[in-house]
Specification:
Keywords: Cell membrane, Lipoprotein, Membrane, Palmitate, Signal. The chain is an alpha+beta fold. It has 4 domains: 1-49; 50-166 and 340-412, Periplasmic binding protein-like II (D-Maltodextrin-Binding Protein, domain 2); 169-335 and 423-448, D-Maltodextrin-Binding Protein, domain 2; 454-512. It has 18 helices and 15 strands. The strands form 5 sheets. Strands 2-1-3-13-4 form a 5-stranded mixed beta sheet, sandwiched between helices. Strands 6-9-5-10 form a 4-stranded mixed beta sheet. Helix 3 (70-79) runs antiparallel to helix 14 (370-378) and helix 17 runs antiparallel to helix 18 (482-511). The longest helix is centred in the last third of the chain and has 30 residues, at 482-511. It is globular and about 75 Å long.
Length: 512
């Protein structure tokens, strides 16, 4: 017995020795590795115990990274997981998501495009884990923005970690060169905003001696009207009265005042008269060409417009500026975005126990670390990017093979509590946009009913929305008056709106 024990012991030591030597050899040539051999050995030894995760994510390229991608290997090492990516073309992500749902074979982590009826139904059937009670255990996930978490929730319950985006992204883009030509300051109030538009329409802001400009360009996309309503104190979709009851935004006392302002802009020719039919794809063109001076849009459209103006006229080096909002009768307000673009949900099909769930949440938490964000967004330093005199320079832009190793892993990023990957050197305008997005977070108007899933709305939502939105446009262009607005509201109520209000308030009461 003693000799047999010694023989087994010697055999075990021999095997361990081989594993150690092999581990050192395998890691000696790893690109971008800053760790010593001992750290690599630990990673190799633990790799045998790594949880295997299947991750469903969108791809924007026909050749997404393969399982052999060195970037994926680095992410696996950092998170201590074995990862198989299941890519789906973003062009039909909703269809692919629904097909995967119906198959019953769900990956561990799924990028959910939105709170579609199919996802909500799957949640109700118990296909995904509720995560809210676990998040406080994780250093990054516990710092998620409350508004964004609520927006992405289902009736207040968390069934996915939102892929966060700028909540305060909306703002006003202005031709700075026109302001300077007319000796105008950036507008601070609604009256200032109106006076600027009037000057841009009537005072030859481009100095060409021709009456060929107007104040603000709007397309058939409804967003600018929604944003500007909040300047007047109109709620974001739903308001809450003193008794805690919710009501739709168009029943707010300030709604008519905002519409009268919009109508004034239209009647005086301060906005394009074809806005109701203008293709949003051409929305920025009049600002670029020098026909219009203002656009209410996402702030980062500002630098894209500026770069196109400079491309056409390099002598006009600083033509655009941006502001976040203007002050109205109730103070500074702005309309937030939803604050997220899809969410990462954990299926109960593949993740069967609470112990496994915590391993998946550990993976998601680590993907918010700076190192993981850099890997997923930028790749491996020295291979996919480099620092030259402290400045970031990507090496993948003109190298399809390198790009195929990294492109798409950022679809697993949640940016909680913030983005930490490396960004190219910025321009003054981009820096201003970033600053205003942060400032906007203090003044955005949250929708108190954002998380509620309404059965009435799922069946009649488009019809109900069209009644109100059509009436708004018709009022602005003078096709109906106040009586017509009231008729539209009554038609909204009789078409299911009354039941919708009742249902939303019941959900709101239950949530409290």
């Amino acid at each position: 017995m003693k000799s047999k024990f010694l023989r087994y012991l010697l055999m075990g030591l021999f095997v361990v020795g081989i594993l150690v030597v092999t581990g050192c050899s395998d890691n000696s040539d790893t690109a971008g590795s800053d760790s010593g051999d001992s750290g690599s050995e630990q990673t190799d030894e633990s790799s045998e115990e790594r949880m295997h995760l299947r991750v469903f994510a969108p791809t924007f390229t026909t050749e997404p990274p393969t399982d052999d991608s060195p970037v994926l290997k680095k992410i696996e090492d950092y998170t201590n997981k074995k990862i198989t990516m299941e890519w789906a073309p973003n062009s039909n992500i909703d269809d692919k998501f629904n097909i995967t749902l119906s198959s019953g074979d769900l990956p561990h982590v799924m990028m959910v495009p939105g709170k579609s009826p199919s996802f909500v139904s799957a949640v109700e059937d118990g296909a995904f884990w509720e995560l809210g009670s676990y998040l406080e255990e994780y250093p990054n996930l516990s710092q998620a923005n409350e508004i964004i978490m609520n927006n992405s929730s289902i009736n207040g319950d968390i069934y996915g970690i939102p892929r966060t985006r700028d909540l305060g992204r909306n703002g006003v883009i202005i031709r700075k060169d026109w302001l300077e030509n007319l000796s105008l300051e950036k507008p601070e109030t609604i009256d200032d905003f109106y006076n600027m538009l009037k000057a841009f329409s009537e005072e030859d802001p481009d100095g060409n001696g021709t009456d060929d400009t107007y104040g603000m360009v709007v397309s058939k996309y409804e967003g600018p009207w929604d944003v500007m309503q909040t300047w007047f104190g109109v709620p974001n979709k739903w308001g809450e009265d003193e008794s805690g009851e919710l009501y739709p935004f168009f029943m707010d006392d300030n709604y008519l005042e905002s519409l009268n302002f919009f109508k004034k802009l239209y009647d005086e020719g301060l906005v394009n008269d074809d806005f109701a039919v203008m293709d949003p794809a051409q929305w920025s063109d009049p600002v670029i060409s020098g026909e219009a001076g203002v656009q209410v849009n996402v702030l980062d459209e500002g630098h894209r417009i500026q770069e196109k103006i400079i491309d056409a006229n390099p002598d006009n080096a600083d033509p655009i500026t941006v502001i976040k909002t203007v002050e109205g009768p109730t103070g500074l307000h702005n309309l937030p975005t939803s604050g997220y673009s899809g969410m990462l949900s954990v299926s109960k099909t593949s993740v069967k126990s609470e112990e496994e769930l915590k391993q998946v949440l550990d993976f998601l938490d680590k993907m918010n670390d700076e190192e993981a964000q850099k890997l997923a967004e930028n790749g491996i330093e020295g291979k996919h990017y480099e620092k030259v005199d402290g400045e970031y320079q990507s090496k993948v832009k003109d190298d399809p093979a390198l790009q195929a190793e990294v492109d798409g892993f950022n679809q697993m990023l949640m940016y909680i509590p913030e983005a930490k990957s490396i960004k190219p050197d910025s321009s003054p305008l981009r820096e201003l946009e970033t600053q205003l997005k942060v400032e906007n977070e203090d003044i955005v108007v949250a929708n108190p009913a954002e998380s509620y899933i309404s059965e009435v709305y799922s069946k009649k939502g488009q019809q109900l929305d069209n009644i109100i939105l059509d009436a708004r446009i018709k009022y602005i262009v003078g096709q109906i008056d106040e009586a017509g607005l009231e008729d539209a509201v009554e038609r909204w109520k009789s078409s299911g709106g009354t039941e919708y209000i009742e249902e939303i308030n019941q959900l709101h009461q239950d949530a409290q």
